Amino acid sequence: MAAAIFGTAVIKGNGAFTIFADFNAQQLPFATAVRNALAAKPFGQWVWNLDLGASLINGFSFFNLGSPFFWISVLFSKISFPYLAGYLYILKYVIASVTAYYYIRLFVKDSKYAVIGSLLYAFSGFQTTNLMFFHFHDVVAFFPLMLIGLELTMKDSKYSPLFIFAIFLNCVINYFFFIQEVIFLIIYFLLRFWNRSSIREFAVRIFKSVLCGILGVGMGSILFVPSVMYIMGNSRSETALYLQNLLYDTRHLLFILKGIILPGDTMNSHSAIYVGNWDSTSCYIPLFGFALVLAFVVKNKGWLRNILIISLVVSCSPLLQSGFIAFTVPYQRWWFMFVLMASLATSIVVEDVKKYDIAKYSLIYIGIILAYFVIIKFIKFDAAGTQIIYHPGRLLLFVAIAIFGPAIIFLLVKTDKFNYNLVLSLVCLFAMITTGITLKLYRTGSDTASYMNDFNIGSKLKRNDQQYRYNTSNNLFTLTGNASGIGTFSSTVENSSKEFDALFDWYASNFSKTNFNDRDPEGLLLGGKYTISSQQDGRKILEKVSEGKKTYYIESQKACPIGFAVDHYIVKQNLLELPKEKRAVAMMNAAVVDNGSVDKIDSAASKLDVKDIDYNKIDKNIDRTVENRVKNFKRDNTGFSCTTNYGKEKLVWFSVPYDKGWDAFLDGRQIDVINSGGMMAIKVPKGEHNLVFKYHTPWFKAGAIVSGISFIIFIVLSLTILIKRRRD
Predict the structure, then answer these.
(1) Mind listing the pLDDT tens digit for each residue in 368-424?
(2) Alpha-carbon gap, residue 159 to 145, rounded angstroms
(3) How far is Cα 270 from Cα 249, in angstroms, rounded to an integer?
């Protein structure tokens, strides 16, 4: 099924697989960038081409650094990922089906009904709507292992290594989703294993689970610890714990309901309710929808029913949903766990169809869909008549699919033709149709050939002078090869880069300040010397790069070097009082400092008088930075080095993101690094000196030590259990 869906797109792309937006701009170039960083010599933890530079771990552990699928791609050439992505997607769907199957078969009498549930999980609306987020599917593929491990360990401690390993695997794959999984696992455990008659047994189970959890997280600490410490300073980690977030408004409740009853939509252009929404709001189950879930909830009592009801209640509250992510952002990105529970309930009902009046609940479910359609189609949303249907044809198609499935089930039951083989075939058909439609919608207008031309051109760009960057924020140009730019499209750049962006009133959580043209002073301040243009515009052409039918000209212009000395400093508050368009020019003359840092640098620089600067003569200001640049500047993945030779003590500013992981050495002696508006500044004495900056991701060493110790304990535990089993 997966091969039919994704193979078609691969064939159309002449072997390459592209989708849209984030997938093209992030997933493909990010994987290539990490592949290049891992192969770089000497190996280091800093990558220069993510934004202005970033930690390899902080920048990429959310996306692919812990992904088994990414590590498969490392076996191939450095620019092969677009040609592997389609096949890796197929593999992810297969693994999601297999792991879900082994979980669901724990609860059905005949394992063939677990096949149905496994396909519902793997081809759910959550998977479909998140097609542009390649790394989300890693999480879906391996999450059921945690529940399998928990279930088996609660029955017999000999299975605890499986549970521990499942926790470790999910922990390293994606720390963001792992936190949500842990919250869900706690809820699952409390509802599934609560034993009122034996509190002691329940306490023992808690203790056993906690020990397994600690060891599993310990094994994954090499990525988990530094990543968690990093995101604590990320702008997306701010708490959203407000009473006003207790309930969604009417519009968002309609949107939540749409995500439950209708097939997965495209996040960038929804058919109804919101034009665009990136919250992963879909948990549609192919063929059945939630019709059989409704039948299960009404008929049964017990832990699964309670989880389904709690999941639905939580879905209606942004406050409760944000609890899955430490009360930060109320996404629906935990819904894959909701889907697994719904798929399990559906499998149970299909297996014992005579116990449930599924014809009745199929009709009720059809009535809910029709009522929903009538409400959003024919009733005005508000007095202003606000339009909430944006693609009527697509909406009608989704409604028809959502109704047609339960209608078929109703007819099969009434005609006594409801049997396993036919139902399985229909599940396959509906899963392929819904996934295929949304994939096609995502790919509409996508030009894979043109994309691959840009991708390959980016891989050919040279670093040129190491003191400068390319004046671009295009991920395809800056992440696929050796080039580095002045910004990026990513939510995991160094936190200090956000601090720098704020100096120019730029507060996007997933974009660096990218709205430069070639001559904007902000880009020139950051070393944006090299421009990439499809047309010659009179500047000095350094190189011409071609791929397919595309040709780009690499040209140079005046720009500030990455490191240069200044005679002045400016307090951050004073800089922000300047008009935004003058701030970068002021920073060409002065390093930005907080009031608390003035005492550290006042011997090397004097306070800037902003009236002394000619803001209209940018070239003159740039020339001053070039004249005072550091010499012999070299950079690699371990950091950078340079030499200085000034006639007096100087304050040297580097357009390199400040991070506690940096260690600076002057002639072999460690010196303090000053946070200068999110970038770095140091004091250097007069005369000739050697400067070396080395980067080590904060908490990485501690995490690696914990992982090493935990793995030793895990191996000893596993061998002990194995030996004991053989003796028994």
Answers:
(1) 999 999 999 999 998 888 999 999 999 999 999 999 999 999 999 999 999 999 999
(2) 12
(3) 18
Query: Is 704 among the domain residues?
Result: no
DSSP state for residue 25 in the 8-state scheme? I
Q: Are residues 324 and 422 in the same domain?
A: yes
User: 728: which residues sit within 8 A by CB, 6+ positions away?
Assistant: none
436 & 452 share domain: no
Tokens (6 digits) for 556: 């140079």
Q: Are 549 and 579 in a shared domain? A: no
- End-to-end CA gap in the chain: 43
**Whole-number Å distance between alpha carbons of 23 and 451:** 12
Whose tokens are 């974009």? That residue is: 511
557, 529 in Cβ contact below 8 A? yes
The pLDDT of 142-168, averaged and rounded, is: 97
How confident is the model over 37-84, as pLDDT tens digits? 999 999 999 999 999 999 999 999 999 999 999 999 999 988 899 999
Cα 585 off chain centre by: 35
What is the rounded radius of gyration, in angstroms, for the C-alpha atoms of the chain?
28
pLDDT per residue as tens digits for the range 192-234: 999 877 899 999 999 999 999 999 999 999 999 999 999 887 6
Question: Same domain for 507 and 601?
Answer: no
Position 350: which residue type? V
Task: Give backbone dihedrals phi and psi of 452, rounded to 5 degrees, phi first.
Answer: -65, -30
The stretches of 262-391 forming alpha helices (DSSP H) are 291-299, 303-315, 318-322, 335-351, 358-378
Spatial distance between the Cα atoms of 593 and 571, rounded to a whole number of angstroms: 5
Q: Is residue 97 part of a domain?
A: yes
From 511, 534, 556, the end of a domain falls on 556
CA 543 to chain centre: 35
Q: Which of 39, 33, 68 is nearest to 51 (CA)?
A: 33
What letter represents residue 63's amino acid? F
Q: What is the model's pLDDT at position 515?
A: 47
Quote the crossing angle between the two packed helices 291-299 and 335-351, to the nearest 10°: 70
Considering the domain architecture, whether residues 150 and 289 belong to the same structural domain is answered as: yes
State the Cα torsion 112-113-117-120 to the nearest 10°: 80
- Helices 136-155 and 335-351 meet at what angle, rounded to 10? 60
Q: Which of 566, 610, 569, 621 is nearest to 593 (CA)?
A: 569
Q: Which two tokens stand for residue 693?
A: 């900056």
Is there a contact between 436 and 497 (Cβ–Cβ < 8 Å)? no
CA triple 318-321-327, angle to 5 deg: 90
Q: What share of the chain is helix, strand, coil (3-state, %, to 5)?
A: 55, 15, 35
Establish how many alpha carbons lie within 13 A of residue 22's alpha carbon, considering only the half-sphere containing its beta carbon. Answer: 17
Residue at a domain's end among 409, 443, 477: 443
Asked if 495 and 233 count as a contact pair (C-beta separation under 8 A), the reply is yes
Q: Phi then psi for 19, rounded to 5 degrees?
A: -125, -85
Residue 644 tokens read as 């200085």
Question: Could you give phi then psi for residue 453, rounded to 5 degrees?
Answer: -60, -50
Tokens describing residue 158: 């000999």
Residues 598, 498 within the same domain: no
What does the alpha-carbon distance between residue 92 and residue 17 come to, in Å, rounded to a whole number?
15
Single-letter residue type at 446: S
Which residues constitute the domain of residue 480?
A: 448-556
Is residue 436 located within the same domain as residue 392?
yes
Q: How far is residue 148 from each of residues 99, 152, 161, 284, 529, measured CA to CA in Å?
A: 8, 6, 12, 23, 55
- Please say whether the beta carbons of 65 and 57 come within 8 A: yes
Sign of CA dihedral 187, 339, 255, 182: positive
